[in-house]
Amino acid sequence: MKKVLLTTTALVFTAGFAAAEGHSAASITISGEAIAGVKYIEDAAQETTQFLELDFGVSGKTVTDGGLEVGASFDLDLNSGGEAAPDDEEVYISGGGITLTLGDVGSADDSVIANIADIGFDGIGIDDTAEFFFDTTTQNIHVKGEFGAITAVATANMDETGTDASEDYGIAVNYDAGTFSVGAGFTNNADEAGLDEDIETFILGGSVTAGGADINLFFHTADADDFAESVSGYGASVSYPMGALTLVASVGATDLDDDDADFGVGASYDLGGGVSFAGGIGQVDNPFADDDGIMVADMGIKMKF
Amino acid sequence: MKKVLLTTTALVFTAGFAAAEGHSAASITISGEAIAGVKYIEDAAQETTQFLELDFGVSGKTVTDGGLEVGASFDLDLNSGGEAAPDDEEVYISGGGITLTLGDVGSADDSVIANIADIGFDGIGIDDTAEFFFDTTTQNIHVKGEFGAITAVATANMDETGTDASEDYGIAVNYDAGTFSVGAGFTNNADEAGLDEDIETFILGGSVTAGGADINLFFHTADADDFAESVSGYGASVSYPMGALTLVASVGATDLDDDDADFGVGASYDLGGGVSFAGGIGQVDNPFADDDGIMVADMGIKMKF
Amino acid sequence: MKKVLLTTTALVFTAGFAAAEGHSAASITISGEAIAGVKYIEDAAQETTQFLELDFGVSGKTVTDGGLEVGASFDLDLNSGGEAAPDDEEVYISGGGITLTLGDVGSADDSVIANIADIGFDGIGIDDTAEFFFDTTTQNIHVKGEFGAITAVATANMDETGTDASEDYGIAVNYDAGTFSVGAGFTNNADEAGLDEDIETFILGGSVTAGGADINLFFHTADADDFAESVSGYGASVSYPMGALTLVASVGATDLDDDDADFGVGASYDLGGGVSFAGGIGQVDNPFADDDGIMVADMGIKMKF
């Protein structure tokens, strides 16, 4: 994402900050991305729809005398589905390869483990069923450690005023060797509606660059005493760049009896200047019904500022 | 509107963007306007009220290698009426004089056709009755073509997830000769509450500079099978600049039997630095009642950043 | 607060503004602060909770040819309590030491009168009971006059569309001699729920620097015909800086029969770069119950960008 940095060094004209400027690295950054295009979902109430999403972010950061990086950020996101509010506030402290983030943080597994690439300008959902138990925990504490090629993340949850924390937690670690990466994680998802027991999920994901293609592989298996048996989801995606054009193919499935594989193919064309045109087509299946899948497709423009 | 451009060229200090900088024209802009003052509406529940409105906008744009300009924008608007949310998200692609915009776009007629200038720092509504069928369509697709002195706009509507599109559409064209302009448009307004049939409106508007004055003229006529007969609205406004002071007079009316003309006079004084002081007074009439009009007035400050 | 000034002079690259640039001082500023930490409230539904708050602000200002400074501002604040919306819109005009502000303005008493410093990174509420009638009026007009060491503020309230103004008003004046300051104010709080008459409050506050410590003193007394007798609240706080470390102690109380004093001690450590670590512990008492107080504490990080 292209970021626009507003440094206090260059831009502060208000009097009285001279003393602070000497050692301050404080800055506020605005960044932005947008997508716009058309989506198709077979048999939906509206089959062909327009979709826009703008994701702008505002972040501030500074550095203490002791060398800790400290910052805060929030998002200004708007989309055709009616999202239009500042949200995702976070505050972080970082030093010595360890970053502690509080607030609307991401999940441990989704922070580091490679997973199935979706297809299209916004995503047609090829990965949704196969990754059903991925990125599902609630958390407001996120600790990340970066140790050379290894990145490890742990997340947990604590009470906020008016809200008892669930006992969700997650741990995940990834090893990135440059030409390949492999990651593993474990999450505990508590207090899910309709379940008496926690869902425990083990996740494996990796990526490898081979023959000019970027290949992602993903597997996870979830279990709870409420389940008749454990449920596994898995899949793979291949991304093949050819100059400005990149072709993508994805497939995902579960071991549920009535679930057919979801699959799709797509392409993205880099127009330069941070702009690309992308689209894809595929088939997704209801994993709980012995039926045929439905066709899904999208096509649109993506841009970064 | 004065715009504050944050160019990535000048301000990006984050490492790793050097390669992208060479051909990128990506930037994020923040702009802002504000008004504040006092409004008077005779016989209103609150006759004399304070009114503020802040209209800030955030927009990003970039240029593809092929020379297409691509961008996205949204507004951060707040006013005394309780408006306070990010909204009006749009994404556009522009090249060769043609601009395609998706999202919360404006109507075709209001995009190009000159109409009756309102009076005062925020507007006392002299033009509201006379322009009742102007700028009333729903649309999320907006195509504008600029061909020398001619600008043409077409708008249409497509489904969004959860929302069936109405069959609204509009087309409008304007010819700007410098000393005068003339525009015409047609809109179809479907699915209006209480009506079985679409409202079809034909609009004419123009402006001319003569004797040091800027004069706007407006006419539109709307018909639907539900109407007993077609309804026309029309009006004119004159703006006369004298140094820092500009005087404005406006009049608008319809051909409804019980409607008296709405009219008003106002003044604006340019204080420099993007700041002006403006006010106006006038009379507006309920078009459906055989009564006298009410007095309306406002006075306040306007600024641009 | 560290401010990031985006001057139009340095940053406007859009064509056509050259003429305006010559005399324009228009600019848009983004500023930001954030806090994050942990709070403890004895016997609360959630005793130990995470709390974050991001307070970002956007403001525009410009200067007229006649030398008046004119501006508008709003806030983008988010916190763990669910606040997440643009709000606090204001427009001001300033010249000759007088500033008129309209919109979501602050109260007269809180604008200038020194009061009891709270304890901790976000505040554990030591001052809440003792200052119960402080900063309680509604207003949308704020006039401030600065005359050397003297600052005076008056606030009042006028109708907005759909909202009848209460008859709240306030006046306050502060004298700042450098080593000490003293302020006084009077507020009228009308239309309070459950009361037939207005609450009239007289406020005194001051600060003095002595022996290396900053001491604040506060007293106010409120009366209404509905009250059996007048109610007074008062307190003091001491802030003692020792290099990067600052110790703070506060005490507050009322003259209600069942109210015990609230008190607390805290510390703040300046980490440099606009970052500090702060915490505190204290006891607060229900003023209407003959009971013991509860323990409150917090600890966290504060930062400015």
UniProtKB/TrEMBL annotation, chains A, B, C:
A Pfam match: Porin_4
Alphabetical UniProt keywords: Signal
A single GO cellular-component term on record: membrane
Signal peptide coordinates: 1-20
SUPFAM superfamilies: Porins
InterPro entries named in the record: Gram_neg_porin_domain, Porin_dom_sf
Keyword DNA repair: no
Coiled coil: none
Annotated Porin domain residues: 7-286
One Gene Ontology MF term: porin activity
Protein name: Porin
Annotated organism of origin: Yoonia algicola
